[in-house]
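This section describes the prediction task in plain terms. A model, or a person checking by hand, is given the sequence of a single protein chain and must write out its three-dimensional structure as a string of tokens. No templates, partner chains or ligands are provided. The sample shown here is typical of the held-out split.
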Amino acid sequence: MKKSAEHKPEEMKRESAAPGADSAQKENAGKPRDAAPADSVSADSVSASAPETDNASDQEGTASAQAGASSDEKAGTDLTERIADLEKMNAQLQDQYLRKAADFDNYRKRMIREKQEAIDYANTNLLSDLVKVLDDFDRAIESGSTLEAGSAGAAFADGVVMIRSQLGGMLQSKYGLEYYPSLGSVFDPNIHEAIASHPSPEVSEPTVSEEFMKGYRLKDRIVRLAKVAVSMPAENAGD
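The expected answer:
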């Protein structure tokens, strides 16, 4: 009787455990056998989306590379245009500089020439007045040439000739005043003033036959024209 009593609690435990086992089996039987764990599903989805991410990254890299190449090409074009503009501007500035330098050089030469001419011909008016004094000396010498040699008048005439010679030499050497002879030369209206003319068979072109008043020049500039008589060729005398 004791043995049977001892076995009863064990049977009761088994009976109480059996319903829990049956319910667990029923739950497992209700689930599909092919259902995979959650961890394996997420790994498959990550592995499937990885190629798409790589492709998108490659496309973005290609687009950025193309954009960078286009930007570099545009920058190179802008730089080339800028260099061309600077070269053109440089050529224009160089041309302007050369023109300005040439203009300044011409201006400098002109100023030097005008300054030298102002110095050379500064005494033109004074020398023009002194030429008249020389004419008076020449007339006095011409009048004294008729005096008897050894007389007081002849000695005075010799003194006048000496003064005339010294004055003329000083004006020529110091100031550049120079007498140019006209008698027997071809008539030149630039240096001669004809106050009389007559035909002559001895000349083939207009020629100075007589000098009434001497002509003077200061360097290359005429101070006073020579007043002369001109012999004209006989064939042109009636014209």
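For orientation: Residues 1-13, 15-48 have pLDDT under 50 and may be disordered.
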